[in-house]
Amino acid sequence: MEINSPGAAQEGGATARRLAVVFNPTKAVDEALFTSISKAAARQGGWEPPFFLPTVAADAGRAATQQALRLGADMVIVSGGDGTVRAVGTSLQGSGVPCAIIPSGTGNLLARNLGIPLDHDRALEVAFRERPRRIDLAKLVLDHDEENAITFTGMAGIGFDAAMMRDTDEGLKRVVGSVAYVVAFARHIGMRPRPVRMRLSGQPEVRRRAVLMMVGNTGQLQGGVWLFPGAKPDDGQLDVLITAPTHLGKWAKLLSVLLRRSPDPAVEYWSGSRVVFELDEPIACEVDGDIEGSGTHFEFSVMPGAMLVVAPAPGVAPDGYGAHTWGR
Known about the structure:
Layout: E1 19-23, H1 31-44, E2 51-54, H2 62-70, E3 75-80, H3 82-91, E4 99-103, H4 109-114, H5 120-129, E5 132-142, E6 150-152, E7 155-159, H6 160-166, H7 170-176, H8 179-188, E8 194-200, E9 206-210, E10 212-216, E11 238-243, H9 248-260, E12 267-272, E13 274-287, E14 290-310
Helix pairs in contact: 1-5, 2-3, 6-8
């Protein structure tokens, strides 16, 4: 889709605000959605006709977001999956320009955690009715490569989680959605535990044998499952999980623990503003569902209030959205 030329100032001399829409054309290609966004902006008043910026295969949204900023966008609507949302949200860091989310992916985890409806029309209501609010971002430095630090919005996984995502067939995913992950799960169910050393916010080193390590800025997965029941995306903390299920029975127990949200020795939790994992052998890592390679040294830290996003206030149920309270 071509970029619309931003319109002139409003009648009466007031300057209209500029709206950019960054979208993933493999996720959001519904012309009706683009029409809805344009109509919503017109109904609100004070907005120029939006300009639409597609992402490309080699860039999940950073270049499109930078273009939106050059064009003077006052708000950026992002329509795509978690990878597109991450690219846009992190690229807006420090700009003072908020993003609004129209969920169009498979997981839509940040939208779920912020109480943003998955229905496009209702998500648009949030975009134009709610106020921008600050949430934390998380940063990963992989194998001491500070120059190429990775910023993310939701969760990162080391080990089983990353291997499963790496080996999920994208063609199958397009056809059957989340069921494709079940196939990949079966391939890795016998993954052996690895020795891991963890240091958390200046606390003494912890040594474990683990199959899966998770770090969360948010807490909720698909299906209403809370991986980190107390997690909040604006608390200045990262939540950490370590577990070592080695066969189907132990994975079933892990799922039961998560569904019950009750303490169990099978799952260990920590929290802090910084966490470092060290392993003896390279292991796969993913952030917000995107594979970021393998490594032996993983340093995570929180970036408090670094992202400005339009979302319902936690614990408040705006008309038509439904109640949402973090961590409950």
